[in-house]
Amino acid sequence: VTWPAILALAVGCYTFKAIGPFTQGRFVPSERTARLLGLFPAALFAALISIDVFGDGRALNIDERVAGIAAAGIAVWLKAPMVVVMIAGAATTALLRVLV
Amino acid sequence: VRKPSKVISDALILGASVGIIGVSFGVVAVAAGLSPLKAQAMSVLVFTGASQFAAVGIIASGGSPFAAVLSGLLLGARNAAYGLYLAPLMRGGAARRALQSHLVLDESTGLASIQPDDDTARRGFLAAGLSVFTFWNLGTLVGALAGSVIGDPLTLGLDVALPSAFLALLGPRLTKRDGRTVAMLGAVIATALIPLAPAGIPVVAASSAAVIGAFFIEPDRS
After folding, report:
1. Would you call A100 helix, strand, or coil by DSSP?
2. Which tens digits make up the pLDDT trace of B35-93?
């Protein structure tokens, strides 16, 4: 991430946070807009996961990462804390890379 | 009167657990090639976990800074809804509002929203915001420094630590039908575009799943 990108992201994210406090009720999003904002994370996280797990540059690849994300999925399903989920995913992947 | 101290201790617990996630942000940021200074700058200035993770993730998979910023912004957009919710609780002039705006987050909104009255809610927002800011940045510092001395991130499976974190963030959104459908759609769009589009674009394109969800999927009432 370059410095201009970090600053652009910082300014943009801050602007979103500050809209409410600085307009004080003069701007109210429609129900549909509010719902759209709420659905972005589901779409983007799912996309990021797919790319990190299946992507290999411009190629698609099924390898140890799939087993790792499955282990992480089980941890999520068991309501484990985020750090445990991350360790489950990373450790499973690492173990398979060493063993296979 | 024990209410204020309960809010403060809740805020500290929240902050500490976010701090641990901050450590993992520091580790994956450095593994993705960021300097510890850049990782720290993101945690101080951007200060929105999901956006920071997403931006770093796109860079790690070879995406352009433009795609990284765009995805980070799409994720940061939900803070606008929190700001609107919190605005009536804020006191003081423009300078104080400007500072308090930086503390508008999942956690500070969450803690404020479960308080019985406005006074306690205001304290909850400020306490959680400051606590999360402090711990998140301490965590980032520790993680970034630790990440610099860890060996090859690939042998450690660290490339899967990041999508695992995304899965943990995604999990609670899968309990609702529209969240599930949008997530599935987003995954399909992104995966299909990997061979077709430059890195970073598939994630941005997958945001269209949220648009489809908002317009064509009935919200469920559960």
Report:
1. coil
2. 999 999 999 999 998 899 999 988 888 889 999 999 999 888 888 888 988 888 898 88
Residue A8 contacts residue B64 (beta carbons within 8 Å): no
Q: Is residue B143 over pLDDT 80? A: yes
What is the C-alpha separation between B39 and B140, in angstroms, rounded? 7
Structural contact between residues B39 and A3, judged by C-beta atoms closer than 8 angstroms: no
Q: Are B90 and B114 in contact (CB under 8 A)?
A: no
What are the start-end ranges of the E strands in chain B?
Answer: none
ipTM score of the complex? 0.89
Count other C-beta atoms under 10 Å from residue A59's C-beta.
Answer: 9
Query: Does any CB of chain A come closer than 8 Å to the CB of residue B150?
Result: no
Q: Which residue shows structure tokens 């101080």?
A: B44
* Residues of chain A with C-beta less than 8 angstroms from the C-beta of B47: 10, 13
